[in-house]
């Protein structure tokens, strides 16, 4: 029978039990997460269609690499109001109805569903209205600000709601667990408008003109600016450029059940991007990762979306 030496103490090393190679007098170890030395500024707008298209990639990037940066979401001010003249003549946007066709193209290309008929039936008068609601929540309940932004985009792009209307905004804020009437009321006060314009000033300082734009800055105020909806590799490569002395490592992805608990609703394209699967694999993937009767699959604009029961 092999002798168990776990209780033996070595007189030379002063170690009781199996020491292995750890016999040095002193060694430095670091069990902490990497210090967040990067500030990431995500410049966006509640009615930005390409920001909606970016959601699958941005979610995965934040999940895998968020331990390297502090994320700041800034409102960019896409549409203050409709006037008598063209708003964006270079892109053929002369009035609300012109936006619908552009949105449909973005939705078809990205497979993040966009209805767009709101621009015919009940056009949004200004993106500043939901942006001010965002700023109120960001100041008072920062942990829920991006949840509100996500819910607002779902209602606007997929479910065709006018998120510049008080009743719609109140309902969305209620969904995230806050007092919708009170938050919307506060968004009409001068303080909310001041906070919004502070975002605009920072956006201008960062040299951002279009959305979405991601700016990553290090402690020396050197950075990278990535304009438009790009790939996960583009954002990871930008982050790596700012951390040249270390090899960035992505975190392990959370399970689908946990992801759905956090997000509440995910479109097929988002699950495909997050777990690197094909559209044709979705049904089998859901069955293998979620308990039977634990979720509901629905469809809108020929795209599936999944919710936990």
Commentary on this structure:
- The chain has 309 residues and is α+β, with helices and mostly antiparallel strands.
- The protein has helices spanning 49-65, 97-110, 118-121, 128-140, 142-158, 166-175, 180-187, 190-205, 232-242, 256-263, 268-275, 282-289, and strands at residues 9-10, 15-16, 38-44, 69-75, 213-217, 223-227, 265-267, 295-300, 303-308.
- The strands form 3 sheets. The protein has a 4-stranded mixed β-sheet with strand order 4-3-5-6, sandwiched between helices.
- Strand 1 and strand 2 (15-16) form a beta hairpin.
- Helix 1 packs parallel to helix 2 (97-110).
Name some characteristics of this structure.
309 residues, 3-stranded antiparallel β-sheet, alpha+beta, 4-stranded mixed β-sheet, 43% helix, Glutaredoxin, disordered N terminus, 12 helices
**Topology, number of strands:** 9
* Widest sheet, order of strands: 4-3-5-6
Oligomer: single chain
> What value does the Rg take, in angstroms?
24 Å
How many structurally independent domains? 2
Helical segment count = 12
Q: What is the makeup of the main sheet?
A: 4 strands, mixed
Indicate the proportion of strand residues: 5-15%
Structural class call reads alpha+beta
CATH homology-level superfamily of the largest domain: Glutaredoxin
Helical coverage, percent range? 40-55%
CATH architectural category of the largest domain: 3-Layer(aba) Sandwich
The separation of the N and C termini measures: 56 Å
CATH C-level of the largest domain:
Alpha Beta
Provide the residue-averaged pLDDT: 91
Order of helices and strands: EEEHEHHHHHHHEEHHEHHEE
CATH topology of the largest domain: Glutaredoxin
User: Residue ranges: pLDDT <50 for 5 or more in a row?
Assistant: 1-5
Overall shape: globular
